[in-house]
Design goal:
- The protein has two helices and six strands.
- The protein is of the alpha+beta class.
- The chain has one domain: Alpha-Beta Plaits.
- The strands form two sheets. Strands 2-5-1-6 form a four-stranded antiparallel beta sheet, with helices on one face.
- Strand 3 and strand 4 form a beta hairpin.
- Helix 1 runs antiparallel to helix 2.
- The longest helix has 12 residues.
Length: 118
Amino acid sequence: MKKIEAIIRRSRFDDVKEALLAADIEWFSYYDVRGIGKTREGRIYRGVVYDTSSIERTLLSIVVRDKNVEKTVQAIMKAARTGEIGDGRIFIMPVDDSIRIRTGERGDISLYNAALEK
């Protein structure tokens, strides 16, 4: 199992969500986050300079079976990419175990409903 964390533009969240659902990734968490990027610039709006070094983004947190890692990453990359600086990052980390609280199932089986497996 792997945990995939992706930091994406807020404006691309709906596209990424639809791409993940199309890839049969039906469960994930997301959070609104702020971060600091390399690009630092001020934006002027009605004569007032605003600091844009603090960037609003969405953090996706997804745990998938090993066989679903690549299709998950590709779905995120395809839907989140604009080609401009600030498209985000994807991090992949190993997960030692997973437990479904309701049933006590452990490992891969805790991530999906075996009765619905295709």
